[in-house]
Amino acid sequence: MNIDELRAETPGVGSGIYLNNAGCSLMPQPVIGAVQNSFALEAKAGGFPARMQETQALDAVYASVAALINAKPSEIALMGSHTDAWQSVFYGLGFSEGEKILTGRAEYGANYVAFLQMRKRTGCEIEIIPCDASGASDAQALEKMIDDRVKLIALTWISTNGGLVNPAAEIGKVARAHAIPYLLDACQAVGQMPVDVAALGCDYLCATGRKWLRGPKGTGFLYVREERFDDIEPATIDDFGASWRAPDEYELRGDARRFETHEHAPALRLGLGAAVDYARALGLDEIRRRVRHLAMSLRAELARIPGVTVRDLGSERAGLVTFSHERVAAADITAALHKAGVWVKTVPRAGALLDTTERELGELVRVSPHYFNLESELESFLKALHRALGP
Ligand SMILES: Cc1ncc(COP(=O)(O)O)c(C=O)c1O
User: Fold this and answer.
1) 255 Cβ closer than 6 Å to some ligand 1 atom
2) For position 136, what pLDDT does the model report?
3) Is the CB of 83 under 6 A from ligand 1?
4) Average of pLDDT values for 5-15?
5) Does the beta carbon of 161 sit less than 6 angstroms from any atom of ligand 1?
6) Mean per-residue pLDDT for 117-124?
7) What is the pLDDT of residue 336?
8) C-alpha to C-alpha distance for 44 and 114, rounded to whole angstroms
9) d(Cα 215, Cα 24) in Å, to the nearest integer?
10) Which of 160, 193, 320, 347 to mutate for ligand 1's pocket (most ligand atoms within 8 Å of CB)?
11) In the chain, pLDDT over 70 holds for what percent of residues?
12) Cβ 87 under 6 angstroms from ligand 1
């Protein structure tokens, strides 16, 4: 990787030290160009003629996303966000009283409030997969929880509040062995490491464009395993996802795009496609290697600062580094760093409330370097942190 070149084509690196890639990364020029060119065409030709001229390029986005995760293009739906994708599957599953959702302790807040709403509406039950000694969801413990009432296994692969990488493929083996639908939140994984849906054994996988993929905001995608196409109806449909065959009849599309609706922004989709191609050209193994190297050295440095505790769980850890300080609140640290031009994030307790409650944690500071960050930027962050913490 030529980091200098990669930075040269990332306009955002000029505005401070950007270490919030788990929140929303910086777009590289090819992504920006794809979005701008498409908007320019739309402005000049009009939305529908432009759409016609871009048909092939838009089709290619499905192929790119599919190649990124080892799926078929027909198994991909392009969505407005991770949450859009996740909800359209979750709310389409249809739960009844007594049916169970099994999930992890680090489940993402947006997913968990949907479980709670489903429980309120239907009387379904939520059970938490116990953690192993490292704090990751334990696949062996999951095996013991399986019975006829389990309707869904839903897991957040990489937590929002730390480097924890759950053993998603081991969980997938249990799900496949019992033919239980498996919904994987891969929001913090896609773009920072290789993702292979066949190895993961998931039936549904959701991701966002703006984080590690460095795509535009307002993009995401859904993967649906082909064998599951007819198992659920999308939570909501329009006459793109389904054709109105007769006055009393509709027929769902024969591919994952049944989860899409007619209206979308071609420019953003093309930006997402460019982001996927960019990541694939760099190599996901290489991206993972560098992100983990930066995150590991950051953890080691943070652990040496008096009063600082690194809070990341798991034996495998990704590029999200979280910490707290015994005296200075996370929000105050983040605010001081922002003033110094260093962009990190305060993660709220509710990002993963089961986990923060169990570990009795307050808010944490999250630092998430991407491959384009420099070692010298991490040093500047540490200096700014020392100043923020005071004598
Ligand atoms: C683990 C996880 N899942 C889901 C989301 C939500 O993604 P989106 O904002 O694209 O819906 C996030 C965003 O921070 C996340 O960290």
Assistant:
1) no
2) 98
3) yes
4) 94
5) no
6) 98
7) 97
8) 42
9) 9
10) 160
11) 100
12) no
Could you tell me if 259 and 241 are in contact, meaning their C-beta atoms sit under 8 angstroms apart?
yes
Q: Is the CB of 166 under 6 A from ligand 1?
A: no
User: From residue 274, how far is each of 66, 97, 157 by CA, in Å?
Assistant: 13, 44, 24
For residue 390, name the pLDDT band (cuts at 50, 70, 90): confident
Ligand 1 pocket residue status of 220, Cβ below 6 Å: yes
Whose C-alpha lies nearest to ligand 1, atom 2?
A: 187
Residue 110 near ligand 1, beta carbon < 6 Å = yes
Cβ neighbors of 48 (< 8 A, separation 6 or more) are: none
Taking the centre of ligand 1 as the mean of its atom positions, its distance from the CA of residue 244, in whole angstroms, is 34
Quote the pLDDT of residue 39: 97
- Domains of the chain in sequence order: 29-281 (3.40.640.10), 284-389 (3.90.1150.10)
Calculate the alpha carbon distances from 154 to 93, 140, 143, 266 in Å: 12, 16, 14, 30
Residue of the nearest CA to atom 8 in ligand 1? Answer: 82
What is the full DSSP assignment across 340-361?
TTEE-EEEPGGGGHHHHHHTT-
- Per residue in 248-305, pLDDT tens? 999 999 999 999 999 999 999 999 999 999 999 999 999 999 999 999 999 999 999 9
pLDDT at residue 14 is higher than 90: no
End-to-end alpha carbon distance in the chain: 39
Ligand 1 geometric centre to CA of 245 (Å): 36
Task: Please say if the pLDDT value at position 203 is more than 90.
Answer: yes
Beta-bridged to residue 155, according to DSSP, are: 184
Q: Going by CA atoms, what residue is nearest to atom 16 of ligand 1?
A: 160
DSSP summary character for residue 28: P
Q: What is the pLDDT of residue 391?
A: 78
- Percentage of residues in the chain with pLDDT exceeding 90? 98
Q: Is 368 in the pocket of ligand 1 (CB under 6 A)?
A: no
* Ligand 1 binding pocket mutation candidate from 108, 137, 213 (most atoms within 8 A of CB): 108
